[in-house]
Backbone:
């Protein structure tokens, strides 16, 4: 059976936005723009993915961590970056008691960085005992949540969009993903507190 070359190409770009088709030099071209993503949303179940705490030897499975618990997870583009260090992480550290009083069991910070970097960043912000600093070393969690952001230019690799979410018994109850992926608005601590 003859294979239609166009449908063969289309089958490889299911996650992409297909724009105008055009003809040039007698060939049919398909213009493909940026990938269409469906970021995490309320009702989603967290994937069974391992993150790393303090060292590559210490795995934390995020589905197990959130089972039977009320957990806040926020994600940042990178440890030690200005917005994440001056605003995002400090907000959650200083609001720890407020979250606890609203029945939150754990607060988790995730970034596509190695676990040693995450541990050093947490130490600098006195996060110990308040915010767990989990490394999404290979980006598996970020990918599973459809939260990838290409920050190859400024940070050297694919990172995580800035987000926050409330998870109850492994299921996302509220999700706030920054519209541009890096801004400091809906994913901040005070915003999530107002949703509890
Ligand atoms: C930040 O300051 O949070 C930031 C810096 C560069 C890229 C993304 C985020």
Residues:
């Amino acid at each position: 059976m003859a294979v239609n070359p166009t449908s063969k190409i289309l089958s490889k770009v299911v996650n992409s936005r297909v724009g105008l088709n055009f003809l040039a030099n007698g060939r049919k071209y398909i213009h493909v723009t940026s990938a269409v993503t469906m970021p995490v949303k309320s009702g989603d179940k967290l994937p069974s993915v391992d993150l790393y705490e303090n060292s590559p030897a210490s795995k934390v499975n995020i589905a197990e961590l959130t089972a039977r618990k009320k957990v806040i997870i926020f994600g940042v583009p990178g440890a030690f970056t200005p917005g994440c260090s001056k605003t995002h992480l400090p907000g959650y550290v200083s609001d720890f008691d407020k979250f606890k009083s609203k029945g939150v069991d754990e607060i988790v910070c995730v970034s596509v960085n190695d676990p040693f970097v995450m541990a050093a960043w947490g130490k600098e912000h006195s996060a110990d005992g308040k915010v767990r600093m989990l490394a999404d070393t290979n980006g598996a969690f970020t990918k599973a949540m459809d939260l990838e952001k290409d920050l190859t230019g400024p940070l050297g690799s694919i990172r995580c969009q800035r987000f926050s979410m409330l998870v109850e018994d492994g299921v996302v109850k509220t999700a706030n993903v920054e519209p541009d992926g890096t801004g400091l608005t809906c994913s901040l601590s005070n915003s999530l507190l107002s949703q509890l």
In short: The pocket of benzoic acid is lined by residues 77, 81-84, 151, 154-155, 182 (CB under 6 Å). The helical segments are 5-11, 62-66, 82-94, 96-101, 115-124, 140-144, 152-155, 189-193.
